[in-house]
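User: Predict the structure for this protein chain, please.
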Amino acid sequence: MEIIWEGIKQALGHILAADSEVLGITLRSLWISGAATGLSLVVGIPLGILLAMKRFPGRSLAASLINTGMGLPPVVVGLFVTIFLWRSGPLGFMELLYTPTAMIIAQVVIAFPIVAGLTMAAFQSLNPNLRLQLLGIGASTPQLLWLLCKEARLPLLAAIMAGFGGVISEVGASMMVGGNIRGQTRVLTTATVLETGKGNFEIAIALGLILLILTFAVNLLLTHIQQREQIRWPKPS
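Assistant: Here is the predicted structure, written as structure tokens:
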């Protein structure tokens, strides 16, 4: 208990003192995971909509791969991204290994199946007659997709939260493709692992608490938006 209490005091001390190194690690964690989540939405939401609304050969296989990817071990993602970015790998000429860009790539691979899978489930749960009604009143394809997204906005917000939560707390892939380089690729999760391995449990607890506070703050904001939208949702007559 003494170690935990000391970790809490150190966490508060780092936050209140705005420690430059801890602040840099925190901001790096936020922008890497934020960028990865944003890119995952760009890829995952259209893919989820496509799988939910279209029938084509191989659709069941694609849906199964997406559902499998939702539970993909991050360390496996880190392994394959590392192989591809290794100097002798297919993308080695880009020299991205051990950079924040490599971490973003790995986190996108982790997050986009989560976003795509939840988006697919959200659109499949919509009333099938809704699409026919919108087409019947002359809605164009962009209008149709926009209105369906508005109808499914609550589960889509849940998909964003799930995607962000899956990458901000990830450590295996980030450690493998980023290298945990001080001042460049060190984030809260990898720094916590490093300090734990060195026996600096108070610092590790402090970093872990900062990670929890950061994750809670982002999800609190998204949950507030989600619940506000739910309150505005018209009650069935």
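The mean pLDDT is 86.
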